[in-house]
Design goal:
- The structure is a homodimer of 243-residue chains.
- Helix content of chain A is 40%, strand content 22%.
- With 243 residues, chain A is α+β, with helices and mostly antiparallel strands.
- In chain A, strands 1-8-3-6 form a four-stranded antiparallel β-sheet.
- In chain A, a hairpin with a 5-residue loop joins strand 4 and strand 5.
- The longest helix of chain A has 27 residues.
- The first copy, chain A, binds a DNA duplex (30 and 30 nucleotides) through helix 7.
Chain lengths: 243, 243
DNA sequence: TGTTTGATTTGACCATCGTCAATTCAATTA
DNA sequence: TAATTGAATTGACGATGGTCAAATCAAACA
């Protein structure tokens, strides 16, 4: 794990660019001071583990730059990639709020700069500012809604439909927001990780991509994806969706 | 929907038997008064819908007696049964806390008695009592952890292993808590609903049950299940678990 | 430029599981 | 008791998608 490096990025919570996009936006100056004191900045290189499934919760992580993947692995080594965490997102709050050990692990997928806020600080802030709790409640509840949707999708949709859905989500997050017409964007993930996001194997992922190309739904060159018509992708996911 | 029936069950939040097991246990008398005022009791017969996916959130439901199933259904009519809600559980809080419409529907599976607390009341309580928010945070966060685990299980385990796991969960909730030796208990669900809890079809459910019987793992007579040795069931779910 | 290494793709195979249709079972009612 | 109804089971079939092994590709490096 790389050491703290105050040269780049913001020096503290007051000047942090990401703050307005995080839960902390509801804190007043005194509370920000507390937050800042309970804070420690860390840097990770791709592949480095931020926390492991089963580890006791160390606090809440605020991602400043880079990208983190949240994975859950079973005894046989099978795993799913549950979340991609990007700047402005918080990480590790589920375990903290549930009062549990981590039930998933977090790994840097790119060079990543993160602040860790220790458990007592977060707990104290939560106990004194109901608005912060409400913020987290909203976040966790929406996340639960998404997880439940994923359970339904995985149970009822084909690999191809799930992949179409994943592409739409990734476009929404990493691509330009043109709702129709041709779209081009960069996948932030390897084939292996794409596969584990939709609960399938790299082999099936490959074949699905190939089939989609031959059907003219999308073109893949390495991590670059070209989609001639977004609407076609939507119909892959919702067969009865009409324009 | 049956009308309010004050003859049976508790008359108000102060005398409610279930209260100590709910989030409301952190409220003081003044807050309980408010809760009680924002409350309305309803009764439902099996099959009756308490709320529908897409409906605007009406509040938080407290289950006093009976049982409710929370289902999520897609455009093609495929559905999964996400939760079984039993007395002392709360229902519908996810949508309320996320500030969303319901993203699943709730249906009475047995004759059921529920209190509804309207949105403004819950919101007011949450804004003034951080402890209540923390309670809900814990509940939603643990629920999210379980949902994420389910995503992993559905992606990596066979129907049979998932069913073994479901049986263990149901035994833990509805059976006697003997950790070893023979166990007998009543399934609270039809074959169809068992299937939709693990994301499969009634046909596959039937065949899985048949296979488990012929393997001596369990015996099924209608809704009565007899398990000669719990540990065998655990091994179905975790093949490398050792005694 | 050749080599190494890991990612990706392809091929071959087949197990699991979903689908559809028919049958059996069980509970309720005429 | 016979008839009705919906749930559960069984059979037959095939598609989807997983597994394993081999081949190919691409990036980093000597």
């Amino acid at each position: 794990m790389a050491d703290q490096n105050p040269e780049q990025g913001s020096l503290n919570c007051f000047t942090c660019q990401a703050r307005e996009r995080t839960e902390w936006c509801v804190l007043d100056d005194a509370e920000l001071e507390l937050l800042n004191k309970g804070r420690l900045t860390r840097e990770y290189l791709p592949g480095e583990i931020i926390f492991h499934e089963g580890d006791p919760c160390r606090g809440v992580f605020c991602l400043e730059t880079g990208m983190v993947g949240v994975r859950k692995t079973d005894a046989d080594g099978n795993s799913v990639l549950l979340y991609l965490v990007t700047p402005g997102d918080t990480l590790g709050y589920r375990a903290m709020l549930a009062g549990e050990d981590y039930r998933a692990s977090a790994e840097a997928l790119e060079p990543t700069r993160i602040c860790v806020i220790d458990v007592p600080t977060v707990r104290s802030l939560l106990e004194h500012n109901p608005a912060l709790g409400l913020r987290y409640l909203k976040r966790v509840s929406m996340s639960l809604g998404n997880a439940e949707e994923k359970i339904l999708h995985n149970a009822t949709l084909s690999v191809r439909a799930r992949f179409a859905h994943l592409l739409l989500v990734l476009i929404d997050k990493y691509g330009e927001k043109s709702s129709d017409g041709p779209t081009e964007f960069e996948l932030p993930l390897s084939r292996h990780d794409l596969a584990s996001m939709i609960g399938t194997t790299p082999e099936s992922m490959s074949r699905t991509i190939k089939k989609m190309e031959s059907d003219g739904v999308a073109r893949f060159a390495g991590r670059t994806v070209h989609i001639p018509e977004i609407e076609i992708l939507v119909q892959e996911f919702e067969p009865d969706h009409y324009v």
